[in-house]
Design goal:
377 residues, Aspartate Aminotransferase, domain 1, eight-stranded mixed sheet, three-stranded antiparallel sheet, binds pyridoxal-5'-phosphate
Length: 377
């Protein structure tokens, strides 16, 4: 039995994922957090911090910055400097600050995509150029020619998601190099949201931070990272931008100003512990999630009307349900007790997104209900 088999009753805590369906017989498989307890080391560190009893203003200390530097070096072979780090309470804040900081008329991104890639530029009164991701060799990727063609003279920012949510793609070195060449050619800043970087499930795939490719791309990059998805501590609100170029960083910091507050003191303890003591937990998590992904893929293979491309990362499966001809897939599956994310939120209503970051028992029950729903058509 795995530690990830433990069922934790999340209905007793008001919150997003389970709170939405509190009094209904629904298995929530939507918002991107998992149903797993955070690593014991993090829980212990939080106990220690709470026991201290004084919760005054607390900045991020040197050793936590160093823990980030070391974690990124250890896992991604990218040597960053601690002064490149700008702490943020959330990656979404980082996306919004970036759009405000890079003053331009158009922002380019690939769709379907996590909704804030569209919302953040809109909040900054920017137009969003949406380039559809394409299916190639049974995997979601980018049509680089179409991407390049779509760039306008007034576009100065590319909002990139790697690993991709919802497509689950981990972009290869070759793909990243193509993108970086385009960004250099058209003088684009690249904001790379890599929040899912630690959740690589396929042993052959490797996460490469685009900024780590070379100095030229590093100079035009804002990489957004966090321990939140990995260690299931999103509610603690810890994330950060890595900005190697001093002027870009100054611009980002100036725009940030005091719009958001510091990350909170519990987040600091949790982040330090996550990045120093939890590698083994992370390896076990990846193993468990890979088994869950296998279950989802097997399930889809047995359902001729469903389609799921290969994915290398995340606990989110982007399932094409168009062959079922449903008016509202989200509502339909909900009526059978499965709380998925409707694809419309990401830009394609013919899809649903299934979060398999849960115990095998709940995943199997969710898939059973999914099947009953399909068989009832
Ligand atoms: C790609 C991506 N970016 C950002 C976020 C949210 O980040 P945060 O909670 O740190 O704002 C999510 C959450 O699902 C995500 O999938």
């Amino acid at each position: 039995m795995s530690i990830f088999d433990e069922i934790v009753d999340r209905t007793v805590v008001a919150g997003e994922k389970w709170g939405r369906y509190q009094s209904q017989d629904v298995i929530p498989m939507w918002v991107a957090d998992t149903d797993f307890k955070a690593p014991k080391a993090i829980i212990n560190a939080l106990h220690v911090r709470v026991e201290h009893g004084v919760f005054g203003y607390t900045g991020v200390d040197k050793k936590t910055n160093q823990a980030v530097v070391d974690f990124i070096q250890r896992h991604y072979n990218w040597q960053i400097k601690s002064e490149w780090i700008v702490w943020l309470p959330g990656v979404v804040s980082g996306m919004n600050i970036t759009c405000k900081a890079i003053k331009c008329q158009d922002v380019i991104t690939t769709t379907p995509i996590y909704p804030h890639f569209i919302k953040a530029p809109q909040h900054a009164n920017q137009n969003v150029i949406q380039v559809p991701i394409i299916e190639k060799l049974n995997r979601w990727t980018i049509d680089f020619d179409e991407f390049e063609k779509a760039i306008t003279p007034t576009c100065k920012l590319f909002m990139f998601c790697n690993p991709h949510n919802p497509g689950g793609t981990v972009f290869t070195k070759d793909e990243l190099e193509k993108l970086s060449q385009i960004c250099i050619k058209y003088d684009l800043v690249i904001c790379s949201d890599e929040i899912h970087a630690d959740l690589i499930l396929n042993k052959e795939a490797k996460h490469i931070p685009i900024a780590s490719l070379n100095d030229k791309i590093a100079k035009r990059s804002i990489t957004l990272l966090a321990p939140s998805k990995t260690f299931n501590i999103a509610g603690l609100q810890s994330s950060y931008a890595v900005i190697p170029d001093v002027n870009l960083r100054k611009n980002f910091r100036r725009t940030l100003g005091n719009l958001t507050s510091q990350i909170n003191l519990l987040a600091i303890s949790a982040t330090h512990t996550a990045y120093t003591l939890c590698d083994d937990w992370l390896y076990e998590l990846r193993y468990y999630l890979k088994e869950n992904l296998n279950l989802v893929q097997e399930f889809v293979l047995n359902e001729p009307k469903l389609k799921l491309l290969n994915q290398d990362a995340t606990y989110l499966a982007w399932i094409d349900v168009s062959a079922l001809n449903l008016k509202n897939p989200y509502e339909y599956f909900l009526s059978y007790g499965v709380g998925l994310s409707g694809g419309d939120g990401f830009g394609d209503k013919k899809f649903v997104r299934l979060n398999f970051g849960t115990t095998k028992m709940l995943l199997k029950e969710g898939l059973k209900r999914f099947k009953i729903a399909i068989d009832s058509l």
